[in-house]
Each structure stands twice: as C-alpha cells, then as structure tokens.
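Good morning N.,

You mentioned wanting to compare the apo and holo forms, so I went ahead and generated the holo version with magnesium ion. This is what I fed in:
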Amino acid sequence: MFRRCVGFRREIKRVIQLRTLSSDVSYDKRWPGWQVVVGLEVHAQLKSRAKLFSNSWTSTYDEVPNSHVAPFDAAFPGTLPKLNANCVDLALRAAFALDSNPQRRSSFDRKHYFYSDLPSGYQITQYYAPISKGGSIYLPKSQRTVRINQIQLEQDTAKTTFIPRAQSSTVDLNRAGSALIEIVSEPDMRSPEEAGEYIRALQLLLRSVAASDCNMEEGSFRCDANVSVCPKEAGDDVSNFGTRCEIKNLNSVKFMMIAITAEVMRHINIISNGGKVSQETRGFDEHTADTYLLRSKEDAPDYRYMPDPNLPPLILHDSYIMSVREGMPELPDATRSRLLSRGLSERDVEFLISVDGGREVGFDGKLGRGGAIAFFDLVSEGRDAKSAFNWITHDLYGLLVVRSMTFKENPISVNQMRDLLDLLERDQVTAPSAKILLKHIVDSRSLEKPKVLAQKLGLMALKENAGQLEEMCRAAIDALPEEAAVVRAGNERVLNKLVGHVMRSSRGRANATAVHKKLREMLQQ
Ligand SMILES: Nc1ncnc2c1ncn2[C@@H]1O[C@H](COP(=O)(O)OP(=O)(O)OP(=O)(O)O)[C@@H](O)[C@H]1O
Ligand SMILES: [Mg+2]
Ligand SMILES: [Mg+2]
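and this is what came out, ligand included:
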C-alpha cells in the first residue's frame, strides 16, 4: 500500500512538473478563461562578513552550530544594536541594480513574535519606512516588466531543527542577526514560468553587484509566492484580483513553479465548485507536489510593529547615495550587449553568464581567479573573441566540469591562457597539442608559462620548413607504399591516410595543412 502511494505521488509530481515546465503548452490550455496572478517576496542574505547589528562574523550553512554568535544575537540583556555600514552599502547596490529609489530617510521597527528561532522575541525590520522604494525588472522571455514595491533591510532568524525521535528542537544561532534584504514585487507575474524567470533575473542582478550569493539550496535566497486567480477579463486592475494565498519558504525555482501551479489548480477547483478562496499562509510538500494549510487569515499573528527605540532613523546623504551609484559594477544587460558587440552570439553570451550557475561574477586580481566572464574579458583583450571563447568554454571549462571544479577553482591564470592562445595564433603549437598543454596545467597546477611547458613536453609545432616534417612524411610514404602509389596515380583521397600517419607519429604536433602540402609536393615530384 505504502509503495503504491509513493509511486502515485511520484506520478502526480511528474505530471505537474511536465505541465509546469513544458514551454509549448500555452497557459490557456492549462487554465482556459482564468488569469493567474503572482507576487513574490524574496529574502536575500547580504554578502557582508559581519552581521547587521553585531560585530559577529556571518557563517556559511555548514559551520559548527553556535560558533558565530555575539551577545546581541543571543539577546543578552543590556546589549545594543549597531548598524553595519557595509550592509547599507550592499542594500543600496541591490536597490540600484533593481532600478529602485534609495530613501534619504528610513527607519527600523520591531516585529514581535514568539518562537525559539528569535531570542529577543522580535525581529528588527523596516516596516514603516523601507530603505528603498519602487523599481522594476524586465523579463525578456515573458516580455513583461515586473514592478518592485519596496526593499527593506532586516535581520535573519536563528535556525531550529526538530528532532522527532527526541521530540525536541535544537537551535543554531549562527544565522541569527545576519543581514537580509526583503524584495517585495507587485502582483505583476501571470504564470509560474514568469515567476521562474523573475527569480533567475533577480539572482543574476544581485550577484552581478555582489550584494548576495543568492544560493537557494544553501538558504541565502528564500522565496514566498503569493498566488491568486481571477477571470481572464479582470485585466490588470488590482481591485478585480482574487484572494491571494501565500506559499512560504520555497527553496528552489523548480519547486516554486510546481507549488504555484498546484496552488492555481486548487483555487480554480474551489471556485469552480462554487466555493470561495480564503486568504491563507500555506506550505509546500515536495513529495506530494501540493500545498498545505499553515494558518488562515484569522490565525494571522499580530506582530505589534513598533519603532525600535534603540536605533535612530537611517539618514543617507545625497553624496553618499551618489558615491554608491558611481561605484556600481556592470549590470547583466550591459554585460550582454558588450559581449555581443565583441562578436559572440547570444547563445555564447548566455553560456558565459550561466557558467557555474552564474554564481562567480567578480574577479580577484591578486589570486587571478574569478568568474568566467571576468576571465574571458581579460584573456580575450585585443584578440579574436570567438576563438578565446571556444578555448575557455569548450576546452578549459570542459576539463573543469569533468573534474567537478568550479570556474573559480580554475588553476590556469589569465597570463597562462593568453600565452597559450598566442602560441596557437603563431602556429607554435597545434590545437591538439594546446589541448594536451591545457590538461597538463589543470592536472599539475603548474605555474610555468605554456611555452616553456610545450618545450619541456616536446609539444612545439613542427614547422613547415623544418627538416623533421619532411622526415616524417618520408617515413609515412615508406610505411604505406601502396597508398603512396595510388596518390601518385592521381587519387587524392588516399592522401588522408598518409596525413593521418604523419599526425600520429608527430603526436599531433604537425600542422595538418602543412603536412598535406608537404606530402602532395613529395608525391607529385
Ligand atoms: N491578489 C494578489 N494575488 C497575488 N499576489 C498578490 C495579490 N495581492 C498582493 N500580492 C502580493 O503579495 C505580496 C504581499 O507582500 P507584503 O510583504 O506586502 O505583505 P504580507 O505578505 O502581508 O506580509 P509579510 O511580509 O509579513 O509576509 C506582494 O508581493 C504582492 O505583490
Ligand atoms: Mg513581506
Ligand atoms: Mg508575505
């Protein structure tokens, strides 16, 4: 029975997944006559070393529990918050990336609730006056602009884990007090796919300005989806929209899209059966691919918001706001057009942007490490962009992927890569030899110049006029006398066999065109 049940659930999941993900199914086929409305609330952890109001370092998800906790994070009596200026910087960068308007004056409020993940009994957030208002993200695939309502700075909570066997929970305060920004969208998305595109675009933007890592699986980027349905004719007037339900804590784009689809179906079912959707907060069960009730609107907690008396209003001077704006790194749209103008195709550009899930964007000049785009920029400077792209993606990235390495772990420096491309351009090494060199550097982590390595490993190309090439051609003719006779008699096609022989005996160091030419010369004499 249990087995059948699991199989059935899997089947439902598969069907919903197919419905959600297949792009050729028009939305109307899934829910003819209905309009789907989605608004997203996203919590992104800011990429700051220190927490929002204490001087404790932030931690990654896999660190020893309770090892990054200042007395303030544990709500020791008498401790006071002190705003970390770096978090304000990052929030402002995020705001500019989303075309939002940083506010000269914002303030901090207490949101009260009683749960073990919140030692002080309240979360410091920005309820009345957020740090930034407005903004938008354009989604090219959906051809839709999603408006941002506001961006607020707030503290993250601790992490509680329930242990069923012991019937108790453990609390890890490492995350408590880390800085988050909550980005609230307007209800502008009209399908699960648009919501998916919004999340991916938002991740790309926040990563490009290094405001957040945006890793959903590690919890540094979490999303709540608000979903409602109404008749298609309702249009974009909010007063015509249906009652929304909020699905909390979705931790992957795929699950978010499945959860929205399931919720839409649930709403349509209720309304079609003459019922009324009631405003609820819901959870998502990955195993059933369905949402479930967490609490109804009547049970909604009263957060008793009040201004935090320990924190003065946050006043930002125009000169400071301007300085953050001026220091903004390149945004994805600008990167795209710059790369396109260098002669890469749209597909190439999307590939570069998506290397390592688009996570590593910046470049650490000192370590010579960084994301694929920065590496490409430096390597391809002053040379053919397409050939540099091919070597970096097909060859180098291919080697890294097989070895489960990210681009940031790439052991080849910009200078080594440039040197290798120089050798290729000057025909000093052949493409097969360059591949061997690349593999050698990745595996040995050698810091030597590729030219020196090529000499050491005997990989320098055999030049056209070098006696060695002629010697090898002569050896091929001697080894394959019948083929040589056929070529002499005028059948050029057999020449390839002889060329292959030379290429093998030169271990790829000979240039195939040069070998062709040489053999033809020798056999036509
Ligand atoms: N009819 C609707 N259908 C779908 N989404 C909606 C609808 N009306 C509002 N929304 C979305 O619901 C979200 C409301 O978020 P907001 O943070 O303002 O309030 P909240 O969910 O009540 O509060 P909390 O932050 O405590 O969860 C927004 O993203 C908005 O776009
Ligand atoms: Mg909210
Ligand atoms: Mg909400």
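Residues 330-456 form one domain.

Happy to go through it together on a call whenever suits you.

Best,
F.
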